[in-house]
Amino acid sequence: LCVVCSVLVSSAAVYLRPIQTVNKSLDKKRNILMAAGLEKGEKSIDELFEAIETKVVDLASGSYAEGIDPETYDQRRAAKDPSTSILVPEDEDLGDIRRRAKLASVYLVRRGDEVRKIILPVHGLGLWSTLYGFVTLDARDLSTIRALVYYEHMETPGLGGEVDNPAWKALWNGKSAFDEHGSLRITVIKGKANPSRPESRYQVDGLSGATITARGVTNMLNYWLGDSGFGPYLKQLKAQKHG
C-alpha cells in the first residue's frame, strides 16, 4: 500500500508541475499588473502584460544586465545562491534581508514608446514574516509613489495584515519617496499624517496595533530605494532624463 501511494503521489507531482508553473507565472503577472494599476479590464492577464517590459538590473552599477533572460530570471532563487548573491552588511541591512541577489528584476509600464511607471520588487522583515511586494514609481520624476502592494506575507490579520487593506494601499498614491535634495524621506508614521503639514507628502498613516510591521515597511523601502538597493539604477535613470 505504501509503495502504491508513493507512486501515486510522485506521479501526481510530476503531472501537476507544469500546471503549477503556469499558475505561478500568472499569479506573479497578476500582482505586477496590480502594482501597475492595470489589473482591471476585459483583456486576459497575458494581454494586459504586453504593456509591461521586464528588465534585469545589476544593483551595484545600476545598469541593465547583459546576457540574462528577464522572463526566466528568478531573483528569489538567486538570493539563496552564494555565487549570485551577496551578504548585506549589518549596518546597511535596514530590511533585515541578510542576503540579496546581485541582479534584480524591474518592470517598465509603457504606453506606446513612453515609460509611464517603474515597478520595483521589495521585501523585508515584518513582525512574523518576510513581506514580498512591489513599489511603483512615476517615471516622470522617479520619486512619486503610485502603488505599494504585497503579494506574500504571514502578518497577523487585522493588524500587520492590514497592508492588504485597499484603503491603506490607496494612501500611497501620490506620496513622495525623495525630497527635493534627493534624500529618502518616505515613512510609515504612528497615527495619521496631517495633510496641512509639508512633511505629510512623505508620510503614510500607521497601522493600528502593528508598529513593528509598519516599521518593517519603512525600513524595506529605505533599503531598496537607497544606495544599497535600486539607488544606483534610479540615479542612472534620472541622469538620462536630464542628460
Describe the SSE topology.
Blueprint: H1 2-36, H2 45-48, E1 52-58, H3 75-80, E2 85-87, E3 99-101, E4 103-111, E5 114-125, E6 130-138, E7 145-152, H4 166-170, E8 187-188, E9 203-204, H5 211-224, H6 231-242
Parallel strand pairs: 8-9
Antiparallel strand pairs: 1-4, 2-3, 4-5, 5-6, 6-7
What is the mean predicted local confidence, pLDDT?
Answer: 90
Largest sheet: 5 strands, antiparallel
Low-confidence stretches: none
β-strand amount:
15-25%
Strand order in space, largest sheet? 1-4-5-6-7
Radius of gyration: 19 Å
Element-level helix/strand string:
HHEHEEEEEEHEEHH
* Shape by Cα distribution: globular
| Structural class by sheet pairing and helices | alpha+beta
What is the tally of beta strands?
Answer: 9
Helix content: 25-40%
Distance between the termini: 71 Å
Number of helices: 6
Account of the 3D structure:
With 243 residues, this protein is an alpha+beta fold. 31% of the residues lie in helices and 23% in strands. It has helices spanning 2-36, 45-48, 75-80, 166-170, 211-224, 231-242; strands spanning 52-58, 85-87, 99-101, 103-111, 114-125, 130-138, 145-152, 187-188, 203-204. The strands form 3 sheets. The protein has a 5-stranded antiparallel β-sheet. The chain has a two-stranded antiparallel sheet with strand order 2-3. The protein is globular and about 70 Å long. The mean pLDDT is 90.
